[in-house]
Structures are given as C-alpha cells and as structure tokens.
C-alpha cells in the first residue's frame, strides 16, 4: 500500500490509509472466499489500482479518482516447473532514468517497453535486460528486479548483487523480501548481499572467468525467474536451467506465502 501511495502521490492522485485498505481487502476476501484456490501454486491475485476519473480534457490534478482492487484466481506461473529465460541486453531503449517515474508503479512505464520486448522476441529472447547509461549498468529484467550471484574477483567470496534504489529501479516487494531473506540466511553461510551498481561488462567478465553462479529475476507473479542466457554485444553468458540459490529463494518465499512457516510478513485475515 505504501508503494501505491507513493506512486499516486507522484502523479497527483489522492493517497489513502493503507491499513484501512487492508481491512477492506480482508472483508472482501471473506465475501469472495470461494474464489481463493487451495491447490499449491494457485492463488487469488490481488492488485490494488488507482485511476483518475475526472471527466474533463486537460492536464491537471484529477478532482475524482477510483481506488479498486483487481482480483483474479491465477494458476502457477510455471505450470511445468521452472522455465529459465533468455535475455537480450538492451541498449537502444531506456526503461527508466534519474528524475523520471521508472521507480513508481505507473501504467505509463509499461507501454513503452512493449515494442523492445517484441523486438527481443523476434530475435528469440524472452525479455529485455535493461541497461542504463554509457557505463551500461544492469538495472532490471522486463518487469522484474534482477539478482546476480557471482564470486568476488579478488576473494572468491560468493556475492548476491542487485541494483540500488537510485530512482531508476522499481522498489519491488519481492526484491526487498529476497534481500532480507538472503541477509538473514545466506550471509551466515559466507555470502555477501550487496545493493550496488554493477555493469554488464562486470557480469560478462564474471561469466568469462567462471565466476558467474546464477542470475534471476524477482517479482510477485513468478517470485523468481531463472535466467539462462544473456546476449550482449555478440557474446552470450550461459547459466544452468535453475541454480541452487534461485531454487532456495523460491522455496523460502513459498513457505512464507503458503503459511508453512509462521512469519512476521504474513497477514492473517481475522475470522
Ligand atoms: C512490478 C515490477 C517489479 C517487481 O515488483 P514486485 O513488487 O516484486 O512485484 C520490478 N520491476 C518493475 C519494472 C516492475 O514493474
């Protein structure tokens, strides 16, 4: 709810009380309980949304708006098990830029990505890997945050990297969850979890030198999406179908989501 409020505020839509919204959604879930699938992997997708509804032509803050929740039963994102994706590192189009709105969940961010996605698809890739700037910083993949597990060049220590929230990165709830779980559960095992800028060259070098372990996307729909290949300037990095960390993260997240594990992130709908 905090993120929807931040996104709304950025485009002059009204904000609302997040706790009250959660209470309303709880009530709605009791009314429509029969639409909540109980098989593992299935869920009721909930997407709070806001649109301006003022019936005038012109550019200005809307005097009326509609806050509503899209609710739809959904099946598993990967019905036949994980399917790793291949990515085209994209330098001819930019998803987000400093001072823009790429860090907000706005519909306006998605339409401009459809043509580059179709172009990548025409060359046999599933998604765009969005690069930024002359340095070619790795930012996000399609509409997911990106994580890379590589071994440090000097020390050989395994590191889990993701781009920092510098205004060009969407603050994914999944990203945040993966970071928290990795800090709690991977760091004691000798990993370093880092939010820092890293370039495509750094990734390609890691792959060349055998230091690339795994790459995966992170977002609500798929939880994690393993990356098999990245094509960049005529070179291609290769990874296995689904690496152990990617699988581990998915299991941790699912066990919290399905209530196998009691966790402070869970919200229990009151009886
Ligand atoms: C929605 C989205 C994500 C993932 O956010 P979650 O809260 O984890 O679902 C990441 N990047 C972009 C560009 C997105 O639109």
TrEMBL record:
Q: Which PROSITE patterns match?
A: AA_TRANSFER_CLASS_4
- According to its UniProt record, the EC number is 2.6.1.42
Reaction(s) this enzyme catalyzes, per UniProt: L-valine + 2-oxoglutarate = 3-methyl-2-oxobutanoate + L-glutamate; L-isoleucine + 2-oxoglutarate = (S)-3-methyl-2-oxopentanoate + L-glutamate; L-leucine + 2-oxoglutarate = 4-methyl-2-oxopentanoate + L-glutamate
The protein's required cofactor(s) are namely:
pyridoxal 5'-phosphate
Q: Which GO terms describe its molecular function?
A: branched-chain-amino-acid transaminase activity
Some GO term, biological process aspect, for this entry: which one? L-leucine biosynthetic process
One matching Pfam family is Aminotran_4
This entry carries the following GO cellular component terms, namely:
mitochondrion
Record's keyword annotation contains Cell division: no
Could you tell me the superkingdom of the organism this chain comes from? Eukaryota
> What name goes with this protein?
Branched-chain-amino-acid aminotransferase
Species annotation:
Didymosphaeria variabile
Q: Which gene is annotated as encoding this protein in its UniProt record?
A: BAT2
């Amino acid at each position: 709810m905090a993120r929807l409020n931040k996104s709304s505020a950025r485009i002059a839509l009204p904000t609302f009380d997040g706790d009250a919204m959660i209470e309303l959604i709880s009530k709605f879930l009791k009314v429509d309980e029969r639409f909540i699938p109980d098989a593992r992997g299935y869920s009721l997708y909930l997407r709070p949304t806001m649109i301006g509804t003022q019936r005038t032509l012109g550019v200005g803050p809307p005097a009326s708006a509609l806050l509503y929740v899209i609710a739809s039963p959904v099946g598993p994102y990967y019905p036949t098990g994980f399917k790793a994706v291949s990515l085209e590192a994209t330098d001819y189009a930019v998803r987000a830029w400093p001072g823009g709105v790429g860090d907000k969940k706005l519909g306006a961010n998605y339409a401009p990505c459809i043509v580059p996605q179709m172009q990548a698809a025409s060359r046999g890739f599933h998604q765009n890997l969005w690069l930024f700037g002359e340095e070619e910083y790795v930012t996000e993949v399609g509409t997911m945050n990106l994580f890379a597990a590589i071994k440090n060049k000097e020390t050989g220590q395994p590191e889990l990297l993701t781009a920092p929230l510098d205004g060009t990165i969407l603050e994914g709830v999944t990203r945040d969850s993966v970071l928290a779980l990795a800090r709690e559960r991977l760091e004691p095992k000798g990993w370093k979890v880092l939010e820092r800028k890293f370039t495509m060259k750094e990734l390609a070098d890691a792959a060349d030198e055998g230091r690339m372990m795994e790459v995966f996307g992170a977002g609500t729909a798929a939880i994690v999406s393993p990356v098999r290949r990245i094509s960049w300037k005529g070179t291609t990095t290769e990874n296995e179908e689904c690496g152990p960390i990617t699988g581990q993260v998915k299991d941790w997240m699912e066990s919290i989501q399905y209530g196998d594990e009691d966790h402070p992130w869970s919200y229990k709908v009151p009886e």
